[in-house]
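User: Structure with adenosine-5'-triphosphate, C-alpha cells only please.
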Amino acid sequence: MNDAVRMNAVSKVYGRGRGAVAALREVTASLPRGRLTAVMGPSGSGKSTFLHCAAGLDTPTSGTVRLGDTELSSMNETRLTELRRRRVGFVFQAFNLVPSLTVEQNITLPLRLSRTRPDKAWLTEVVARVGLADRTGHRPGQLSGGQQQRVAIARALVTRPDVVFGDEPTGALDTMTARDVLTLLRDTVDGMGQTVVMVTHDPVAASYADTVLFLADGRIVDTMDAPSSDRVAARMTRLGAWK
Ligand SMILES: Nc1ncnc2c1ncn2[C@@H]1O[C@H](COP(=O)(O)OP(=O)(O)OP(=O)(O)O)[C@@H](O)[C@H]1O
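Assistant:
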C-alpha cells in the first residue's frame, strides 16, 4: 500500500436545495507516501474541503477516503478523533499554539491528549530537526512567527503521523521565513520519510512539492510533477486564479 491517502469519487455538498454548494465533485486522488503534495486552485475551488476530507476533519457527502488501510467513512466520531490525534498531524496558517504552554509542552500536547508517553529520544530528534533545542522552555509569545510555525511542525511530527496536513502553512510568514519553513517541510519528507500534503496559494511554496494537484470548481483539473514556481504560476493564471 503505497498511498498514504486514497480518495475515491469524493463529493462534498454544503447545504441543501437551492442554496446547496458542491465544494468537491467526484474527486479521485492518491497521495503517495513519503512525498510532498501541494494542492492549489482559485479561491473557492475546494482546497480546504479537499484537505479536511482527506484528514478526517470533515465527512464526504459521498465517496470514500482511506488513510493507509483504514477506511474513514466507516468510523464514528470518537474513532475519528482518536485517528486524528494519533495518525495525522496538522499545521495551520495561524500556528494554533497554546500561549500558556512552553514550546516543549505544546509539542507534546498531542501525546498527552492521546495518553501516550513521550519517547524521549524521538522528542529530542524532532526538536533538533526543527531547530528549537535552545527554546524548549520558551512560550509562543517569546518566539518569532517562523519559530512558532516550527513548534507547530514539531507538534505535528511528534506522534509519527501517517500524514502531516498543512493549510496555508506559510500564509502568515514573510518570504524568507516562509522559505525556511518550506525547506523544513521538505526535509521531513527527504530525511524522515514523512508524507506531507499542503494547501497553498503561493506558487513558490508549491514548487517545494513533488507533485501539485490543481483544483477548479471542486474537481482536480491537472497535476504537475517536479513543479517550478513559474510553471505553477502559469497554470494558475490559465485557471483564472488571478483575474
Ligand atoms: N461550511 C460551509 N458551508 C457552506 N459552504 C461552504 C462551507 N465551506 C466551504 N463552502 C463553500 O465550498 C466551496 C469550496 O470552499 P473551500 O473553502 O474548500 O475552497 P478553497 O479553495 O479552500 O477557498 P480559499 O482559497 O478561498 O480558502 C466554496 O464555494 C465555499 O463557499
